[in-house]
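Entry 14. Structure prediction run on the chain below.
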Amino acid sequence: MTSNLFDLTGRVAIVTGGYGGIGLGMARGLAEAGAAVVIADRNSANSAQAKAELEKSGRPVLALAADVTDKTSVTKMVSATLAQFSRIDILVNNAGISIAAPPEEMTLADWQKVIDVNMTAPFICAQAVYPAMKSAGAGKIINIASVLATLGAGGAANYAASKGGILQLTRSLAAAWAIDNIQSNAILPGWIDTELTQRARERRPELHDRILSRTPANRWGTPRDLAGAAVFLASAASDFINGAALTVDGGFSIQG
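Output returned:
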């Protein structure tokens, strides 16, 4: 029985923003565990490239162009997934952006754009997949937050606020949809080596040593480090875990 707890064979997972970074790392983990994976991104070329990568696992992969901030686009994404696979078992709300600026300099447009992508879009996507999950009698929603959901971020108040909001959205969905056997949980990544953080280190060369000095694991995370957490929260192994926040940061957030 234990060997089957993490088996996702026959399951269908949508991963937003899954073309690279931690999104692709989680998508790869889900595919290796047996799931069919739908990669949804605004850039169809990015999605197609990720599809080619994931097909190496031998699992079915569908690449879709979708704007997760637009309800009509998300509805089409869900319809296309159901047309291809006839079910949706897992939603990974991973698409996200960061626009850094001190709060006194941040424009309202930059504040709103980050809130729209990082917090409102996961709500739109969760709402869109709910009917299919309810009809199937089960579902897994995984929202990607950040360690900055619980830590202050003087240079990225919009990002930290959006990720803090994701934690509350996660708990609220868990409370609302537990009766439908839909579990909603969050993953809080720490500092992961991706294109996004590489650009941050180019702007702030001191960031690399600063992160290492505070991380007990003494390294940056990799997208692969998120795969196990995603598989766990997508599988039967987490059926009685709901509204939880799983931190994956090498110990960064436990340091004072």
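The first strand starts at residue 12 and ends at 16.
Filed with the rest of this week's runs.
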